[in-house]
Inverse folding.
């Protein structure tokens, strides 16, 4: 929600800014996976099947963005930013719900089939825009019976790695990347992906949540005003 509007403010067309953001912050998922490496080792093997629809959906979302004109995407951006902010606002209640015993019982084949379909849909959104995607992925994992929030965050990092990796590859092939901004974004994403957990503990969850919500709502409003002008 921050990197993309920043690139737009620097003068990049919205579609180019979105594609560049996907590639620039993708290495951050590597940092997150390394940070959650203990939890990754504990993930139930069947959960890894979610990476298949993640990859397919991420590719479909990237192709959809490729077919979207900058003018159309400009009109969608305020709505997408608002949607991502709302997802972040409901993260707390969602996580509390996912820790419940009821969620733990929802682990049958029917739920898994539904999760595969849901994961594909979320991956399309992730390849197309992606902000707030992890919140929805947490909900999917909760439906499959996962209750350990650390393991869920680890699995979410794996899913994001696949979605953004496939989408980013297609963006590169399509020539949608402005390479001038990639290097600093990669450095920041790697440092942030690995160090965010420790920083979050020091700053405090409440302060971080308030900051992100204010930034998200402000950016959605600013992008809307920019469109009107």
């Amino acid at each position: 929600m921050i990197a993309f509007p920043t690139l737009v403010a620097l003068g990049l067309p919205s579609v180019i800014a979105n594609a560049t953001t996907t590639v620039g912050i993708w290495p951050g998922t590597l940092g997150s996976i390394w940070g959650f490496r203990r939890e990754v080792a504990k993930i139930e093997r069947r959960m890894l099947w979610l990476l298949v629809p993640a990859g397919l959906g991420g590719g479909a979302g990237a192709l959809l963005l490729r077919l979207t004109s900058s003018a159309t995407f400009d009109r969608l951006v305020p709505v997408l930013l608002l949607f991502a902010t709302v997802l972040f606002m409901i993260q707390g209640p969602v996580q509390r719900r996912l820790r419940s015993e009821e969620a733990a019982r929802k682990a049958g084949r029917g739920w898994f089939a539904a999760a595969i379909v849901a994961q594909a849909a979320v991956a399309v959104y992730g390849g197309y825009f992606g902000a707030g995607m992890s919140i929805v992925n947490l909900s999917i994992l909760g439906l499959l019976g996962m209750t350990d929030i650390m393991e869920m965050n680890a699995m979410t990092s794996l899913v994001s790695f696949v979605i953004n990796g496939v989408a980013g590859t297609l963006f590169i092939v399509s020539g949608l990347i402005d390479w001038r901004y990639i290097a600093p974004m990669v450095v920041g994403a790697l440092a942030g992906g690995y160090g965010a957990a420790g920083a979050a503990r020091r700053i405090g969850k409440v302060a971080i949540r308030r900051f992100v919500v204010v930034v998200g709502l402000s950016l959605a409003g600013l992008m809307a005003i920019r469109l009107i002008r």
User: Anything to note?
Assistant: The mean pLDDT is 81. Residues 31 and 194 are 4 Å apart (CA to CA). DSSP finds 13 helices and no strands in the chain.
